[in-house]
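Technical annex B. To support the medicinal chemistry partners, we prepared a structural model of the target in complex with zinc ion, based solely on the information shown next.
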Amino acid sequence: MSGRSEHQKSVPLSVLLKRELANEKIEKPDMVVVYGHASENKKGEDFILLKTECQRVVADGVSTYSVFGLFDGHNGSAAAIYAKENLLNNVLCAIPPDLNRDEWVAALPRALVAGFVKTDKDFQQKARTSGTTVTFVIIEGWVITVASVGDSRCVLEPSEGGSHDLSADHRLETNEEERVRISSSGGEVGRLNTGGGAEVGPLRCWPGGLCLSRSIGDMDVGEFIVPVPYVKQVKLSTAGGRLIICSDGVWDALTAEMVLDCCRGMSAEAAAPHIVKESLQAKGLRDDTTCIVVDILPQEKPPTSVPTLKRPVKGMLKAIFRKKSSQSPYIEKEYVEPDIVQELYEEGSAMLSERLETKYPLCNMFKLFVCAVCQIEIKPGEGISVHEGTDKPGKLRPWDGPFLCLSCQEKKEAMEGKRTSDRLSSGSD
Ligand SMILES: [Zn+2]
């Protein structure tokens, strides 16, 4: 066996056969994704990833998905560039092969955690610099999955109206839970002391002085600054909606409501530069200011003529969409659509033992002797259960996975404040 890269590099016959069959059956999604983006740079540390029409072989055809990422580096751009180039692949490698669409979507939250941690760990072995925030969005059908560390945000406005936060705010100033976590892992939370006892600026954690509690690639701070993302997964109704992903340059100037309001009725392409312009008008160019607007729309309307989302009239809009859908000549079969945004998954814990466990019935699909984070092959008996050292008294059996390799186990302990003195340096994979 050649290890972790096997299913990435050589294509098994079964997959080739499937691909042949699949050429006949590329699933026509009933939705379309259109996007726009804009950026005004002050430091040049914001980076974006825009990928639509990614193809994936599934059990009975080819399915497409889209990926959008925003990486806002602090004190340099190395980590942001590294994450932009490697994160998606690390996430995809953590998804078992041969899953059908529903299973693939269900596997995403766990794969995102593994991919974020692997990206952080790999980067730390290459460079000793500052890190990056990440807001990472995967859209498959009507399901949106967002994983985030740091303080860039992603807001959803479904066509039915209202708004949903799909990302976490990992600023120490506003996140008490994270302050408690850091204090109990041995970090210190406080403001900058100017010397005379006067404290200035936002809450930061020491050592390092970062005002965020989570990021990818931070090497000059404590290990309790973890890359474990908050993950939220929702399913839109077939009426669709608009996603707005911005760096803190926008959110420092405008509220979510202001951002959604200022571009309502515009195409995604026009909306993104408009949001950036609005935030510059409000606060001036004080930071990198980046915005991605993504519209997820029903397929029956050609994307160019879609006026996007109008101001929602409570109750009315839903009725309009219903009526249109059932009368549309392009839709052959009746379908039942959910009324509102369905919440499929939400988890923000920093503990790998909670995040690599899965609430979905997927246990058997993950290979037993592969590290759940870096996907390296582990010899039988050498894997360390992700539950090792947690409070599962008496219940832990030697075969209770998921398992980590020694190097990832060290990383896990460091993140939990159990290895305070020695920094990750082994590089054993
Ligand atoms: Zn590992």
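Notes passed to the chemistry partners:
Residues 1-8, 308-338, 421-429 have pLDDT under 50 and may be disordered.
The first strand starts at residue 31 and ends at 40.
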